[in-house]
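Checklist before submission:
- one chain only
- standard amino acids only
- sequence pasted in full

Submission:
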Amino acid sequence: MQENYTPNNREKMLWWLSTAETELVKNAVVDRNRHAIIGMLMLGTWCFATLAWTYFFSTVITELWKAALLGIFMGGMILSIDRALIKGIGRITKKIWLTLAFRGALAITIGLFMAQPALLFLFQKEVKLQASLDNEERMNEKQKAIEKRLKTEREKLIKEKQAIRSELQTLYEEVVSTQNSFIQETDGTGGSGKLGLKAIALAKKERADKAEKVYQNTLIRLSPLQQQIDSNLQRMDQNTQVELARFESLLNNGFITQIEALNHLIKNNAAVAYRYYLLVALLLLIELMPVISKLLLPTGTYQVYAKKIEEQEIAAIEST
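Returned file contents:
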């Protein structure tokens, strides 16, 4: 034991990260290094959490400095939680296993969440490409939904338009037929075969004029209706484009969109899925390492010092 040992600032910081009491651990020669190791792992987890949260916020905030500040804040929150987890782990007994299970579940939950931004960063190019394809698919689905909603009204208008065209076409063919019949009658190429405006020719001319008049009257009557139908169809197309444009403006490459794209990549690509699960295990291990190291490293004289000091303080309080 070296009671006069003076730790440097690096050691003090690592001990603080490991939740060790400086006045006690500096007198525990072997435990100095143990707590320094735990402190290094805590520092790595802290940096990892800060970077992961910064990237997470950068997907929803355009200003990088704001994302960095929020990332630092959330990294500090994760550090505080991890320090609480480490501090709560003492000598392993039967009574502590339930507490350890809870702390382990909490650490795993944090690790799994923190792995998501890191994985998005590692698969950034592939995720952005898949997100673009997903957004295109969403656009197609939106367009199909709009078309389905307007299908009945559109079909009704198209049917009315076709009926008008069919009626006008029939009348126009009648006009052409009667006019041809009149011309053939007058030039002797058809009908009675007699030249000139004979009685038969006059009758055919009257029929042609009548057919022309009926066609023109019908055209005058149906043209406004036809124009109204065309206007309604055009309006529907314009409204569809406006709605699609509005929907497209809502599409983005935010965090949830990228997570969905990553899930699609994992589902459709075995190579990506294999590396994804390996990386999840690795990143989860980074978050769990401080807790694991605290459990794996043997307790030394520091624990004895801490327990003794605590018992002395309790006895002093109880004696007053």
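Reviewer check: Residues 137-253 form one domain.
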